[in-house]
Structures are given as C-alpha cells and as structure tokens.
Amino acid sequence: MTMDDRWMSRAACKDADPNLFQPRGEGDHIPKGQLERARAVCRPCPVRRQCLRYALDNPRLTTSGVWGGSTLSEREAYRKAAKAAKAREKAGEVAYG
C-alpha cells in the first residue's frame, strides 16, 4: 500500500464481501437490492470521498462496481459534467482574459 492509498485500510468495505460491490454477469448493471446494500456500507464510510475521488481519478482501474457509493454510469456522468464545467471556465477566461 502506498502513501496515497492508505485510506483504503479505513474503508467500511474492507472486510465486506467484494462481490457485493461488483455487477453480476455482463455489463455494469447491479440489481437494485444489491446496489442498496452496497450503498448502505458506503454511506457512513469515513473515507467515502477518498474512494469516490480514487474512482474518478483512475477510470481504467474502476471500470465496474460501486466506488464511494457511485456506479460506473454515475462516475461517467460526474466526469462528463466536470469536463464541461472546465470547458466553460476556460471559455470564460478566453472571453474575459
């Protein structure tokens, strides 16, 4: 474990069944009941934000499953929104800069 991922040792899920956080079968679909149980573990987790940040910063390592309470499709939407916000910010700098 590196200095950057020490937060993982404090994760609420560290002793949980890893299959709870992964889709069953093909694709990224996680059945609603399973997703609710995974999110119930994530919700009070003391390192939930670090986990989500890790997933957002490492898309190639987090191509499926629940990370920081989020699904792959939610993380993709977060990344898309962040990219659009950055583009708007940059456009504003060009217009006013």
TrEMBL record:
User: Which cofactors must be present for this protein to function?
Assistant: [4Fe-4S] cluster
A GO molecular-function annotation:
protein-disulfide reductase [NAD(P)H] activity
Report the leader peptide range. none
Q: Does the keyword Transcription regulation apply?
A: yes
Task: Please indicate if the UniProt record lists Protein biosynthesis as a keyword.
Answer: no
CC annotations in GO? cytoplasm
Give residue ranges for domain 4Fe-4S Wbl-type.
Answer: 12-77
UniProt similarity note: Belongs to the WhiB family.
- What is the designated name of this protein? WhiB family redox-sensing transcriptional regulator
Give the species: Thermomonospora cellulosilytica
Q: What is the lineage of its organism?
A: Bacteria, Bacillati, Actinomycetota, Actinomycetes, Streptosporangiales
